[in-house]
Amino acid sequence: xxxxxxxxxxxxxxxxxxxxxxxxxxxxxxxxxxxxxxxxxxxxxxxxxxxxxxxxxxxxxxxxxxxxxxxxxxxxxxxxxxxxxxxxxxxxxxxxxxxxxxxxxxxxxxxx
Length: 112
Description:
The chain is mainly beta. Helices cover about 5% and strands about 35% of the residues. Strands 1-6 form a two-stranded antiparallel ribbon.
């Protein structure tokens, strides 16, 4: 699927970030929920920059998930959109290693 974009508020239509540009983003991440069609399929919130301050990053260079790299570079300055991002363009399958619990670490691992 990749990434789809639903524009909620148009931007200026001319200033569009290019690969390597520093962008400032306010975002809220929600899980995709089939039962929330009336709310753009936005289910349970899992992260947000609201109240923490804007998120700043280089865009289009792999510092964020692929869905942001591709979706944000289609937006124009001031635009507010819902980006619906498939798993393979988000975090996808990840290898997770539990290295410590409450300052107890697995054999061979040291506190970081």
